[in-house]
Every structure is written in structure tokens, then in C-alpha cells.
Amino acid sequence: MFGYDPIHKQFKVLCMTRLSDxxxxxxxxxLTLGAPDRSWRMLECCIPHYGYPPKEICINGVLYYKSxxxxxxxxxxxxxxxxSEKFSFIEVKVTLxxxxxxxxxxxxxxKLGLFISEDNGYFxxxxxxxxxxxxxxxxxxxxxxxxxxxxxxxxxxxxNLVGRDYLFFAGVTRTNEIVLAPSCPSYPSFYLCYLNTKRxxxxxxFVEIQGIDVSDYYMDHVVLDHVEDVKLYDV
Length: 235
Fold this sequence. Notes:
Blueprint (H helix, E strand, L loop, with lengths): L1 E4 L4 E9 L6 E8 L8 E3 L5 E3 L5 E3 L2 E8 L5 E7 L4 E6 L2 H9 L1 E5 L2 E7 L8 E2 L5 E9 L4 E8 L4 H5 L4 E6 L4 E6 L6 E8 L6 E11 L22
Antiparallel strand pairs: 1-2, 2-3, 3-4, 5-7, 6-7, 7-8, 8-9, 10-11, 11-13, 12-15, 13-14, 15-16, 16-17, 17-18
């Protein structure tokens, strides 16, 4: 897993070694990219855990990822501070477990969030023609582990707008618009969907990307706010 420490302006990689059964992570190591010492450093972690799945997000120098406590089987969100290289944990309450399992971790105004579709069955991090609303959980207080819950209604014409496409979470813009992208676009050209959540009913806009033929593609990966950097790091 990859993250950036804005204090020391360092990129770091967190590695977890697991057994052949794919569940139990035994060792945690960290590597600082571009540092004179290119060796991996062993880390101590007080709670043995494994990812579910290990899809991380880095917010203000803290790496967050979904996890399960090996001993208690309780659902957790692991917080790895890239500056201090210390672990902390957020216990997930019953009301939040479904969102954790099927939702997408997001950066919402510098806070950790979970985005899911309320009406789309198993694929709850996606939005389809069957969806009538989306839900956003935001971690308002890390120390107290307090979350806010927001449900936003999709417009009445949503079904006609999205057609048969499944739209998956792609990211959040700097103005807090949630960006969705189709996994297998039914249109000949690629497009993005922007959800403005400043109102109870979502304001939707579609942006077509000219010059990209996606008729032969199944999955497209979207990166927001990409800045090209040609600097090479030796590992």
C-alpha cells in the first residue's frame, strides 16, 4: 500500500506479509522511497488483522484500509500514520458494517468517508438504473469515532440517464463532487458522472470524454487530480 507524508514530504510503502491461506498477515514493514537507506523496516502492530479487501486511501498523511481483527473477527478500519509509522484502529459498529464491506473508502473534505448505493444489492459501491439514492458516511471525529450519515436522493430521470450501465466510484473532486465511471460503457465514448451532494436531492451532470473509444473495454480506471511526475525512485 502506498501513501504520502506531507510533513516530511516522503512517499512510503506499507507491506503486509501473509500466509498461503490469504487471511493472516504476519509481518508489517515500511519502506521510504528515495531515502538513502533503502531497506524495509519492521513494524510492531498490537492487533493482528487481515485486509477485507486491502483497498487503501491516504488522507493527510494517514493510510486507511479495511480490516478484520484476527482474534475477535470484528470489523476494523486500520489507520497507519505515515509520519510516526504507528498503527491505530477504528472499531466499526453494527450500523456501519454493511457500508464498510460493500462501500468505497473516500476522501471527503479531508475526512474519511464511505460511499455506497442504498438500493443496488450486492454491488453497493456501484450505482445503476435500479438505484434511487446514495449514502455517505463521514468520520467527523477520529478520537471519538463519531460518524455522520447522509442519504441523497437521485433525480427522477436517473434511470433514463444511466441506462444499463453500472457506475462505480472513481473519486471526489476538490469541490466535493462524487465522480462515478462506468465499468462497461454502453455508449461508444467514455464518460464520467458527477454527483453534487450539497442538496438532499443530488444534482447530476455527465461529461463525455472525446476521442476515447471504449467499445472493446470492460473496465476503465479513473484517476482524479493526476499530476505527472517523471522522478524515478530506486527501491
